[in-house]
Amino acid sequence: MGVMSVLREGDRRVTKRLASWNSPWGRPLLLAAEDAAENSKLWCGAAVLMACTGGGRGRKAAAAGLGSLTVAQVLSNAVCKQLYERRRPPVEWIPHPEVHERPDSSSFPSGHTAAAVAFTAAVAPVWPWAGGACGVVAAMVAAQRVHSGAHYPSDVAAGALIGLAAAALVRNSPRLLLRLAL
């Protein structure tokens, strides 16, 4: 069995398993997290809250988070989704009605996950407590993307990698620019 076959089978198994999860308290929480994260409302709101209540550290965390989120969204939505067209998971794998509310764009990668991880990974080194709080919500957003049938687990994993790369790029960009200038 080749690598791609193993990946497809893993995507199928994890998607079916997560999509069939039907906790009376969990599903509403996942839906609320996804709704709040739509169009980055949640992360922009978190940045405003950090900037207004966290002093200099809060402003620095907010700026790092928003910068990383922006880079991640460009990489995931404007670059990767244009380079690789992947259909959403089959409707038959998803046993609940949210499956009919999926986007038409490419499934690969998860832009929601990329943004959530980028924001969290940029905030955490600056303000660990806020980064931890964001991390909980980012994990919920990532799980919801598979639960709803919007993405395969591998799409979410790729989005998380893009988010981590975006946060590292933003964190290191001042040093990189200084090296280029010298």
Automatic annotation (TrEMBL):
CDD domains: PAP2_like
Pfam family, one: PAP2
Subcellular localization, as worded in the UniProt entry: Cell membrane
Keywords: Cell membrane, Hydrolase, Membrane, Transmembrane, Transmembrane helix
Membrane topology field: Multi-pass membrane protein
Keyword Lipoprotein: no
Protein name: Phosphatase PAP2 family protein
Protein species of origin: Streptomyces ficellus
Lineage: Bacteria, Bacillati, Actinomycetota, Actinomycetes, Kitasatosporales
